[in-house]
User: Which sequence fits this backbone?
């Protein structure tokens, strides 16, 4: 076995990501999908990574896992897993980590299981990849795994094909496959996006339960702040390949500083809203990652935007609470921020109007 | 109105079809509120087309029956009561009378006698005799054996080589794909029959040089020659299908579990690609049978006295215009029906597994 598994207990954090950049060379130019992301993750903890589609969440997770296609790929920075640098490892060397140390759950359980292979085979393949056990024992382990992800009649399910299972059941199988070799860090890339709302909570609870039983760390990627609200210890909000705000979960929801975080939160429909209320949206689209705007990347869509935002990119600034950082010149809830919003309201900026409209509906 | 999802709503079908169905359902949800009745109707339509797809038509049944018969003939030829294909048959007197140059002769050899022959049939030999007085029935049965052996062998060879290369090209993509696709295109650009002809000539020469008395048997040489021609065809189909399946998330999921490339290719991608390969392989066997016939007429097919459908036609093709057309017509009918059946079956397989023809 590789030294990765039986390494002497490393004292530092489980995962240290610092200044990771992931670019793709394309015909149009360099796509800066992840542009200098840093965070650390302790054992057994969960970090939620939140952002719109196309802001680099998935690329970030696959970049850390080393799962991106290597053609035209530029990866820089440092990814330390239990103190070991991963970023320069070849896929062959990464195999010592894949499955047994790092595992991943994908968004769509429809496509992440092989349609022509029985469930039992898919799980035991994963088990036997990492553990030197015979077939019968692997099947026994697989049955226990299915039971632990709360699939009824696990013995029967092992003999079935993926299409015989419902979406939620399939995602449980995917979780079982990912957990098969006892990873220490689990990446969950929008694990509930393709599921029914009723099943979403069950699957998230299941993941949380497995996580605490196994003392496993998790990177939970989602576009839905609601999903991470109760389940992540820390939340990093990503925009255009960067972390724009990062804070312990309770701090973030109490005291968000970045207008983008606020916009994301207000775009979640609320039960208290009357019916037929127009949903709050963020106007415009995420920027082109080949030619990102100068200055703050969110400026073109921001309700608080000022001239300075278009010229200078704000650095990641620490807030008053420990562990809270954000990138903004005119943060939400500060006198400067309120003044900026007030100025924009008078000027009638499009983005501000949208926010104002959302506000009036709420009150 | 939402378009009725035509695929994949059955709960026990092949999952190859599930993706389009879920997309169709999503699309129908997006298009507006779905009245429950519509959905039920749509599901019913889907179930109907499904059943239609699953139920074999008369043509398919006949095709399967015919191919079954041919396989039995080929496999059990030595056990069947058809006699020796190389024996010149002499009839017991009294023999049929034949008019030649104004005289009536008693002919005891069945040469040229048979159904449709000017000189009448050969009693006791339903399909008549060939140009050398051998039993057509026996020759056709043994011909089935060598024709099917050559065609199937060639396609298996093509599947093995072309399939492996196509799988590698489709899975890895990039430069590997460019090189292998280029190789397939080069092979495809050489006229098939000329390539096969050249290969037969080359392989016969090489194996004769080996010093052994006989070298490689001609059947093996033909399998290799026609097999090489089949490589790019099967390779391209496999590549197209493998390319598509390799993009699926379960391949990435397997990789994220630490599976090696070879394992992912063989265990994850290949089983999904097989239906496409199988469907094309059936058509390939049909083409290979015809190719063997063409090579026989060019004089490089299965070597007499061993019979094949192709060389039965080739040897006695002059009889077609000289009063004994059955010698040519009988093997031609066998080739015709077999090729037709194989095409039918290929279509059935394709319809079942929804294999796209694109990429041929």
Assistant:
């Amino acid at each position: 076995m590789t030294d990765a598994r039986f390494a002497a207990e490393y004292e530092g954090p489980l995962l240290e990501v610092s200044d990771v950049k992931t670019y793709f060379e394309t015909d149009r130019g360099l796509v800066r999908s992840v542009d200098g992301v840093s965070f650390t993750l302790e054992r057994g903890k969960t970090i939620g990574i939140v952002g719109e589609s196309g802001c680099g969440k998935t690329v970030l997770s696959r970049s850390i896992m080393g799962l991106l296609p290597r053609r035209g790929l530029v990866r820089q920075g440092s990814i330390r897993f239990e103190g070991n640098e991963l970023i320069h490892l070849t896929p062959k060397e990464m195999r010592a980590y894949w499955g047994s140390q790092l595992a991943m759950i994908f968004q769509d359980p429809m496509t992440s299981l092989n349609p022509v292979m029985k469930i039992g085979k898919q799980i035991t393949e994963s088990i036997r990849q990492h553990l030197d056990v015979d077939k019968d024992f692997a099947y026994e382990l697989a049955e226990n795994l299915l039971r632990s992800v709360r699939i009824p009649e696990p013995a029967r399910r092992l003999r079935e094909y993926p299409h015989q299972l419902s979406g939620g059941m399939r995602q449980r199988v995917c979780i079982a496959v990912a957990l098969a070799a006892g990873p220490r860090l689990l990446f969950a890339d929008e694990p509930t996006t393709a599921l029914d709302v009723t099943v979403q909570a069950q699957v998230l609870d299941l993941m949380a339960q497995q996580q605490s039983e196994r003392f496993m760390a998790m990177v939970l990627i989602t576009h839905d702040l609601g999903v991470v609200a109760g389940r992540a210890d820390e939340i990093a909000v990503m925009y255009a390949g960067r972390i724009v705000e990062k804070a312990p979960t309770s701090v973030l929801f109490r005291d968000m500083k970045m207008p983008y975080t606020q916009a994301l939160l207000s775009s979640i429909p609320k039960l208290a809203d009357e019916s037929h209320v127009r949903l709050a949206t963020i106007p415009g689209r995420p920027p082109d990652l080949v030619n990102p705007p100068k200055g703050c990347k969110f400026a073109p869509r921001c309700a608080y935007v000022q001239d300075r935002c278009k010229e200078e990119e704000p650095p990641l600034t620490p807030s008053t609470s420990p562990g809270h950082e954000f990138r903004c010149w005119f943060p939400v809830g500060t006198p400067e921020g309120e003044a900026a919003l007030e100025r924009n309201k008078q000027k009638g900026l499009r983005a501000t109007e949208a926010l104002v409209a959302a506000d009036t509906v709420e009150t | 109105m939402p378009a009725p999802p035509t695929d994949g709503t059955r709960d026990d079908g092949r999952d190859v079809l599930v993706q389009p169905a879920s997309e169709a359902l999503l699309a129908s949800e997006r298009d507006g509120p779905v009245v429950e009745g519509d959905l039920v109707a749509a599901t019913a339509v889907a179930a109907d087309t499904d059943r239609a797809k699953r139920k074999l038509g008369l043509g398919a049944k006949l095709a399967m029956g015919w191919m079954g018969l041919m396989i039995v003939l080929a496999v059990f030829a030595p056990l069947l009561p058809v006699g020796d294909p190389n024996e010149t048959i002499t009839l017991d007197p009294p023999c049929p009378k034949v008019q030649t140059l104004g005289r009536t002769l008693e002919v005891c050899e069945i040469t040229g006698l048979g159904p449709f022959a000017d000189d009448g049939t050969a009693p006791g030999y339903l399909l008549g005799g060939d140009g050398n007085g051998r039993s057509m029935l026996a020759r056709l049965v043994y011909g089935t054996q060598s024709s099917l052996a050559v065609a199937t062998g060639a396609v298996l060879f093509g599947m093995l080589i072309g399939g492996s290369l196509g799988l590698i090209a489709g899975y890895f993509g990039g430069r590997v794909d460019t090189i292998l696709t280029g190789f397939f295109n080069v092979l495809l650009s050489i006229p098939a029959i000329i390539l096969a002809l050249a290969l037969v000539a080359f392989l016969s020469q090489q194996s004769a040089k080996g010093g052994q008395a006989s070298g490689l048997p001609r059947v093996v040489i033909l399998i290799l020659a026609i097999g090489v021609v089949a490589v790019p065809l099967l390779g391209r189909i496999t590549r197209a299908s493998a390319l598509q399946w390799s993009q699926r998330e379960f391949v990435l999921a397997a990789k994220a579990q630490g599976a090696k490339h070879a394992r992912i290719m063989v265990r994850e991608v290949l089983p999904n690609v097989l239906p496409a390969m199988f469907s094309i392989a059936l058509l390939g066997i049909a083409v290979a049978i015809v190719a063997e016939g063409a090579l026989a007429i060019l004089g490089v097919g299965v070597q007499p006295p061993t019979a094949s459908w192709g060389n039965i036609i080739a040897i006695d093709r002059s009889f077609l215009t000289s009063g004994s057309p059955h010698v040519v017509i009988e093997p031609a009918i066998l080739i015709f029906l077999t090729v037709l059946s194989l095409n039918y079956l290929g279509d059935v397989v394709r319809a079942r597994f929804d294999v796209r023809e694109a990429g041929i």
Q: What stands out?
A: The CA atoms of residues 204 and 217 of chain B lie 9 Å apart. Residues 1-37, 355-360 of chain B have pLDDT under 50 and may be disordered. The two ends of chain B are 35 Å apart (CA to CA).
